[in-house]
Amino acid sequence: MKSTRAYAHTNIALIKYWGKLPGHLNLPATGSLSLTLENFGTQTTLSFIEAAQDIFVLNNQEQTGEPLLRVQRFLDIVRALGKSDRRCLVDSRNDVPTSSGLASSASGFAALSLAANQHYALNLNPVDLSQLARVGSGSAARSIFGGFVYMHPGTPVDKTGGYAEALATDPALDIRLIVVQCANTCKEISSRAGMLHTSNTSPYYPTWLATHAKDLEEATRAAMQGDFKTLGELTEHSTLKMHACMLAAKPGFWYFEPLTIAVMNKVKALRNDGVNCYFTMDAGPHVKVLCKAQHAEDIAKSFKKIKGIVRIDIAKPGPGAKLQ
Ligand code: PMV
User: Fold this and answer.
1) Which range, of 21-25, 120-124, 151-155, 289-293, averages the lowest pLDDT?
2) Is residue 324 domain-resident?
3) Confidence label for 98 from pLDDT (cuts 50, 70 and 90)
4) Residue 195's domain spans which residues?
5) Total number of domains constituting the chain
6) From ligand 1's centre to the CA of 12, what distance in Å?
7) Residues with beta carbon inside 6 Å of ligand 1?
8) Which band of pLDDT confidence, cut at 50, 70 and 90, is reported for residue 158?
9) Are strands 322-323 and 277-280 parallel, antiparallel or unpaired?
10) For the purposes of burial, counting CB atoms within 10 Å of the CB of 52, is it exposed (0-12), middle (13-18) or buried (19 or more)?
11) Which H/E stretch holds residue 296?
């Protein structure tokens, strides 16, 4: 049986994307800047099957409902591009917790896109591959590439854009992202639902859109020039603005848990003691802390003292998605 396997690493946005353009293409309303991580990712194997429907197995469990539909809808797009009607068994393994704000959908749809590109002989170039991954999950477009990744916003008029590219940064940055898991639970509000609710009801959303491009431009410049302090400050600013938009929605909502705040406070205390580090949070309770490689072990040790933390990992920048 012909099968194709791919592995993609997760990525975490330093300058966030939150909000979509209208339409079915999953185009992001803002650009973003991310870091692909070495530690975590998704391995996906595609095999053709003689069946009426695709089958999706995640971590050895056959999926039904929305997770299955998302994969089937995605493969329908792949089949249209590849002029094929063949169904697939999609066998995926995540080494990050699923649906918890640790970017499992980013690595999941990036691995699926790369495997599907090969399996259905689509011959997509990196930009088109990134756009295909984006249709599955906005952040997946970034996991096609390694290291720092710059993602272009969608363009409202001609409905293009929404693709990522690798960013050449100053090697002197030498950074780590400490991933602090603050809960074991799945998130209650998907990022898709959260974005829609925010854009429909938050009075801060227009300001988020209006001020985003400047943050992205300055943070990108800082990463390219090795300016860690500016990059870190903008990283915190971007995540706090994104979460402020959600808090101001009607009704407001948040992904923070008490431990999320405890880690944020610790980061501020470390900074007051002269250790430069900066937090970022996504659609989940976990905190990711940007720091210099030489400080990572000590910072991680200080988080270990916070009672109730589930797990702490120090992640290096990681490579782009690869066929295996
Ligand atoms: O990839 P999505 O559509 O699940 O959205 C990801 C949204 C955030 O993780 C909160 C921000 C980002 O840019 O990754």
Assistant:
1) 21-25
2) no
3) low
4) 175-315
5) 2
6) 8
7) 13, 16-18, 32, 105-106, 137-139, 191, 282-283
8) confident
9) unpaired
10) exposed
11) helix 296-304
